[in-house]
Amino acid sequence: MTNLANVLTETAAEHADKPAIRLDQLDVGYGQLVGMAAKVAGQLRAAGLQPGDRVSLILPNVPAYPVIFWGTLMAGGIVVPMNPLLKHYEIEYYYDDAGAKFSFVWPDFMSEAKIAGEATGTQVIECTPVGPVEGALPDGDPVTEPTPREDDDTAVILYTSGTTGKPKGAELTHANLRVNAWHSSHDIMEMSSDDMIMGCLPLFHVFGLTCGLIAATHVGATLSLIPRFDPAKALEVLERDKVTIMQGVPTMYAAMLHHPAGETTDVSGLRTCVSGGSAMPVEVMRAFEDKFGCRILEGYGLSETSPVASFNMPDAPSKPGTIGRAIPGCEMKLLDENGTEVGPGPDAVGEICIRGENLMKGYWNKPEETAASIPDGWFRTGDLAIVDDEGYYTIVDRKKDMIIRGGLNVYPREVEEVLYQHPAVAEAAVVGVPDEMMGEDIGAAVAFKPGEEVSPEELQQFVKERLAAYKYPRKVWTLEELPKGPTGKILRREVKPPTE
Questions:
Q1: Contact 417, 165 (CB under 8 A)
Q2: 347-403: pLDDT as tens digits
Q3: Per-chain mean pLDDT for the chain
Q4: What pLDDT, on a 0 to 100 scale, did the predictor assign at position 162?
Q5: Helix or strand or coil: residue 149?
């Protein structure tokens, strides 16, 4: 029985004085981190947490995040990471669906979380940069030995929106995360305890959580946190902390590449960069590598795969534009519309299907959705790709109508449902529109009810008040009627933004 938190206790025993987490001038050593996590675990136990209870985190990248993440696991709880930008309507759904008993929240987000907490009975606890506010939880004996858990017990529930508009919680087990972080740290990034990792990816996102926090903890490396990504700050941290490994999404690399400070910043320590979340333009990759003298390895994964499924590996040639090959312990194949496996070839397109030790246990309390996504042990990703004869995959399209804005997933249906709540809107279709900085941005075509009309700005504000800020449509245009198929269904694929 191995709790994921044993990764921390074992590393702390070996590297007690080594900085685990850095935030500007604040260093938290591994010995200190395990002590702080043990205290939180004891407080949660004293407050009534039972093994398997769910604990939500609504925090930016500050040391409190790893303290409470590891503390919850040490107490035997399940962590539910949540995007701090969510509004109370969204938070309430997550609290209710997960059955969250406790929620640790950064002061800036307390007002939204409290409204949701009152509606669901979730205890909302305010946090400082290093942990819960003093006195918010009862004192308890520190939990120095992680509560025994089975490999197949759920450690984290990560919410991922579906095409139905209602997010589903992917259950990632202790084994899922431990093994995926091990492959990420050893096989992909070749980490050691001497490495300084740039923690600019949000820890509520599975990429930052697994490949940043857990992978760094595996080897005793230091994770230097940036609470919110800013290209100037990222370049400053690269130089100040002599960062050796950076993890990011393509928009981060593009922003740093084009920032004036990049001309004078000393990033000579930077060895390896990894990119995921969305496809990186080959020109951006090559220009970044040339300018900063490092190698960018691009890969692919999903919340449901813990996340890493494939990567361009350091010991083999990279193929820019591809998502690399399946990592050890993970299998990938392509299936056509008839469920027949398709082989290598530039025209042989199929849906990526995945199985292996990184694959989630299932969707939380959603057996039907789980069975539909994993009908035969292979997870249907909804991403369409081709594969070459060396096993390198290239994504060509998405089967699902997902928009990836700066590495964050936005599902059109979720935004459409909010637009339909506006009394003037008769029809709405949300689509991705190309954007130089974000890769793609959110566009919305609307048709009004007879005699009704409001400005695009009013519709944008309406959505802003109800969904996280990254989800509102940046471009809104009106049509007399939206394109429809023979059954009257709106054909989202035929919705195109007006040319300027």
A1: yes
A2: 898 999 999 999 999 999 999 999 999 999 999 999 989 999 999 999 887 767 788
A3: 94
A4: 54
A5: coil
Number of domains present in the structure of the chain: 2
DSSP one-letter code for 214: I
Residue 394, domain member (yes or no): no
Q: CA 80, 274, 159: angle at the middle one, nearest 5?
A: 20
Q: How many CA atoms lie within 13 A of 137 on its CB side?
A: 28
- Spell out the residues 6+ positions from residue 101 whose beta carbon is closer than 8 angstroms to its own: 48, 49, 53, 54, 55, 122, 123
**β-strand pairing of 222-225 with 196-199:** parallel
Task: Output the pTM of the full model.
Answer: 0.88
Last residue in a domain, options 384, 415, 440: 384
**Sequence letter at residue 455:** S
- Which residue range(s) make up the domain with 441? 403-494
For residue 372, what are its two tokens? 């539909």
Instruction: Calculate the CA 270 to chain-centre distance.
Output: 23
Could you tell me if 166 and 224 lie in one domain? yes
Q: Based on the domain organization, do 314 and 409 belong to the same domain? A: no
- Tens digits of residue pLDDT in 239-277: 999 999 999 988 889 889 989 999 999 999 999 999 998
